[in-house]
Amino acid sequence: MRNLVQLLPLVLPILSFFILTPLIHAKSVIEPCSSSDSCTSLLSYILPWDSKISEIASRFQVNISNILAANSFNPEIPSLGNQILRANSHVKVPISCPCVDGIRRSMSTTYRVQEADTAESVSHGYGGIVSAEQITIVNGINASNPLLNRQSLVIPLPCTCFNNSNHGVTTVYMSYVVQSGENLSSIGLEFGTTVMDLEAINGLGQPVIDQGDILAIPISACSSKNLIWYNESLIVPSGSYALTANNCIKCNCGTSDLNLQCFPSGIAVPCSHLQCKGSNLFIGDAYVNQTAAGCNVSTCMYRGHSGGKIFRSLSSSSYVQCPGKQNYSAASPLGSPSSPNPLIPFKTVTPSPSPFPGSTRTMGTASFGPTSKQYSNMSNNGGVLGKASCCNLLLLALVLYYFL
Ligand SMILES: *[C@@H]1O[C@H](CO)[C@@H](O)[C@H](O)[C@H]1NC(C)=O
Ligand SMILES: *[C@@H]1O[C@H](CO)[C@@H](O)[C@H](O)[C@H]1NC(C)=O
Ligand SMILES: *[C@@H]1O[C@H](CO)[C@@H](O)[C@H](O)[C@H]1NC(C)=O
Ligand SMILES: *[C@@H]1O[C@H](CO)[C@@H](O)[C@H](O)[C@H]1NC(C)=O
Ligand SMILES: *[C@@H]1O[C@H](CO)[C@@H](O)[C@H](O)[C@H]1NC(C)=O
Ligand SMILES: *[C@@H]1O[C@H](CO)[C@@H](O)[C@H](O)[C@H]1NC(C)=O
Ligand SMILES: *[C@@H]1O[C@H](CO)[C@@H](O)[C@H](O)[C@H]1NC(C)=O
Ligand SMILES: *[C@@H]1O[C@H](CO)[C@@H](O)[C@H](O)[C@H]1NC(C)=O
Ligand SMILES: *[C@@H]1O[C@H](CO)[C@@H](O)[C@H](O)[C@H]1NC(C)=O
Question: What is the value of pTM for the model shown?
Answer without folding.
Answer: 0.71
